[in-house]
Amino acid sequence: MSQLKQLVLGEDSPLSSPSDAIKTAKEEPINLIFEDKELERTPLGDAIDSLLVRWAQLLSNVSSRPPVPAPSTIDHVKEVVEISMYHFRDSCLDVCSEFTKIDLQWQLDHPEEVYEDEMKGLDDALIRQETLLARAHGILDRRCKEFFG
Known about the structure:
Largest sheet: none
Number of strands: 0
Number of domains: 2
């Protein structure tokens, strides 16, 4: 039973014995990220940080909370939006390229698993094509019989 379900459905009474407290302590998840250690910087982490910064910048540039200062000209608004949009797009592309690099590195490090996945995909595609061909053959036979029969 999940901890949330236990909290919702469980009783409000305190634990009855020390052994219950030990069981509960053992069931708690272990903190995998150590609070005293900082995670190492990675290109993917940097790309995601940049994406979040650009997203916040884009949202702040299109804020509609009163009082909204009137822009000097419509060209200024277009320019600000265009620049923000390009920065956000570039950040999205950076995140995608980092995921692609990680995927390619994994494929190079685990060629057997990649081969198995590729073979499974090809087998599924062959089955799908055979099913579609059989269905098309059945439809053509039926229509020929209706037309000529």
